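Hi team,

Filling in the usual template for the complex we talked about on Friday. All components are listed, including any nucleic acid strands or ligand strings, so the model treats them as one assembly.

SUBMITTER: L.P.
PURPOSE: interface mapping
COMPONENTS: two
RESIDUES: 357
SEQUENCES:
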Amino acid sequence: MKFNDSTPIYLQIVEKIKADIVAGKLKGGDKLPSVREIAENFKVNPNTVQRVYMELEREGVAYPQRGIGTFVAEGEELVKKLKSTQAHKYTKRYVGEMKELGMAKKEVIENVESVLEEDENDHAEG
Amino acid sequence: MITLKADNITKNYFKKSALDGMSIQLEQGRVVGLLGPNGSGKTTFLKLATGLVRPTSGSITICGREIGYMSKELVALLPDSEFLYDWMTIKDAGSTYAAFFKDFNTKRYSELIDFMKLSFDMKFKSLSKGMKEKLALALTLSRDARLIILDEPLNGVDPVAREQILGAIVKCFNQESTILITSHLINEVESILDEAYFLKEGKIVLHGFTDALRSERNKSLDELYREVFAC
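RESULT (copied from the run log):
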């Protein structure tokens, strides 16, 4: 995984894990990989991964089980909540960038629609 | 607990000043970067920490010990130059280290040699530059030292080998020791650093936790580095 520039690395890993939960790659009750596994996988410092777990626990996304590991919290609510906060965040980013280009509201929406259409066509062909 | 403490060190080579009032404090369980351009004093500092040269003024201690033969057993150094003989095999290099250092962990050595995709019967002479670097790193990381110093571990190494080297560092990191890395490949080492010191003309000009530096300044370490060291 390539890290982007300005956000702390641990927050970027948190985002990645949340995205996996929203996408259903990680489900409620699943055990998260160990600190070592994540560290070696992402080539980051184990202390950073420790911070990832602290953040996930603080937000109630995961919970620790002493001596066994850290698990993804269960419940439909969590996935729903994550889905809407992540969607909001990404959309905000997109809108922010479009505004920087001086786009009006109508253009922002038109662009989303045209990209969605392209995407559908690609899938239809492929 | 503090692994290394350097207080206001200066080092002059005759009239030329290499370090000019440098202070640094390394804590246990951290990976710390010492970053600066060529000639900023990084290697001079490492020579001081390993007792190869003595400071003109100021003090350095490692786990409370003055630099000397008592401190040397606590420090594992990966030098940035070659230090093995051509006739040695990878196995010989391991036995030599095992004879020299009582904290050498033979089992970890063979695991690391495996991990780096090297083999025991290879001769040093026949190794490529990247393989030599991996071997030297395996030797250094196989010591259970309190302070592990890696001087430019990624120099002259291709991107795949870099990944392996970073992987090995992460693998061997433990909460008892401290790893100090010097590099100017900031982008590559950034993700494994807890803390970074920026060294410019023999002085520390910036110090902080990498995550804090990123969020406070909204920049990657690499961008910060370019900003600090731009002429």
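MY TAKE: Chain B has a mean pLDDT of 91. The beta strands of chain B are 2-13, 16-27, 31-35, 57-62, 65-66, 75-78, 147-151, 178-183, 195-200, 203-209.

Thanks, L.
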